Amino acid sequence: MRVGILMRVGILRIAACVAVALTAGVASADEDILYWMVGSDATVEKDGVTTSVSSFFENYGAPEGSAFAARVRVTGGDIQDGQDVFLDLYIPGYGRDEGGGAYGVEFSDAGGYWGAGVPTGNQSPSGDYSAGTPEYCFTVELGNIDSSDNWTTVATSASATYSSLGNYIHQTFDINPGQLAVWAPTAFSVPVPEPSSGLLTLIGFAFLALRRKRKEA
Predict the structure, then answer these.
(1) Are 111 and 169 in contact (CB under 8 A)?
(2) Residue 206, Cβ density class (10 Å: 0-12 exposed, 13-18 middle, ≥19 buried)
(3) pLDDT reading at 202 higher than 80
């Protein structure tokens, strides 16, 4: 079963990567960092019914040994349609966890708070997406991760442009997380699944049959 991001890194991994983290792995002193989280006040809308995110998770029917997490997807700019791009995670004291953003941050209790990254927010390097035409957009995805680290998206927030998140973007090393504004979307919705190719084929045959009946009539 997955654990939170700090535990996921692991003591052995931290010990092995300290030297790298202090050089190339550490964000530069002026790198932009997006502070974001999902709190207990978030809600999920499904089939016209809105419930708290915790209730949604409880009723989801997650497989044993899985966990729920949140991550930030990046779209727009020069990112191609269908390309999976996620904000990395920055771990203070150790540096940038390359690729860790794809696995997200697990929902858990932290000092009396429940959520993903509560109460001070997750830190994600965002400077790579500060400019672009069209502008880059960020979407928080909620997902279920099984024991093999396979991610299933269960709900998504509305997308927000980089420029609209200016109040939540800060710089590393010269900030006090406890005093910073954090992007915390509260409204999520269950994505509508796209029809499968088999279903589209059946629909096509149904239309053909209908046209033939009309011609015969």
Answers:
(1) no
(2) exposed
(3) no
The number of beta carbons lying within 10 Å of the beta carbon of residue 54 is 16
CA neighbours closer than 13 Å in the CB half-sphere of residue 161: 8
Judge whether residue 122 has pLDDT over 70: yes
Q: Residue holding tokens 């084929």?
A: 201
Predicted local confidence at residue 214, as pLDDT: 55
What pLDDT score does 179 carry? 76
Contact 81, 110 (CB under 8 A): no
The predicted structure's pLDDT at residue 175: 62
Query: Model-level pTM?
Result: 0.78
Residues with Cβ < 8 Å from 105, sequence gap 6 or more? 4, 5, 69, 70, 71, 89, 116, 117, 122
